[in-house]
Specification:
This is Rhodanese. The protein is α/β, with parallel strands linked by helices and about 140 residues long. Helix content is about 45%, strand content about 15%. Strands 1-5-4-2-3 form a five-stranded parallel beta sheet. Strand 2, helix 3 and strand 3 form a beta-alpha-beta unit.
Length: about 140
């Protein structure tokens, strides 16, 4: 009888250890694999011709003014990821922004999970404009 109790306790211990280990791996938070930059850092960074510039706002917002040499892909569009894959190169970094910084964080997460090296303009186009940086119409 004591041998059966020992085996039951051993089985419970093994199951407990396996559950613990599986929870460690399955519940890990996804690390945000992109860097947010302030306006001056972002401005200096995009001077590199190898950096792809991406505006993730709506077309209407983009047409009212944007950072020069940017392409526009609306992150709220269902085809955002597909369009990004067709227009961007994974071997070159992507510097992106939206109006205030919220949508660009969403876009940065999507793109970084797909293997892009992403840099986000903290506080977005509003901060860029408020800092008196150049805007293209």
């Amino acid at each position: 009888m004591s041998n059966e109790i020992f085996m039951l306790k051993a089985n419970q211990l093994v199951v407990g250890i396996l559950l613990f280990l599986s929870s460690l791996f399955s519940c890990q938070q996804q690390k945000e694999d992109f860097k947010s930059m302030n306006v001056d850092e972002f401005d200096a960074y995009i001077q590199d011709e190898n950096v792809q510039r991406l505006d993730v706002r709506t077309l209407a917002e983009y047409s009212e003014g944007h950072i020069a040499k940017t392409i526009n892909i609306n992150v709220l569009d269902d085809s955002f990821a597909t369009m990004a894959d067709s227009l961007l190169q994974k071997d070159k970094p992507v510097a992106l922004y939206c109006r205030s910084g919220k949508r660009s964080k969403k876009a940065a997460k999507i793109l970084s999970k797909k293997g892009y090296k992403v840099f986000d303009l903290h506080k977005g186009f509003n901060a860029w404009r408020d800092a008196g940086k150049n805007i293209e119409q």
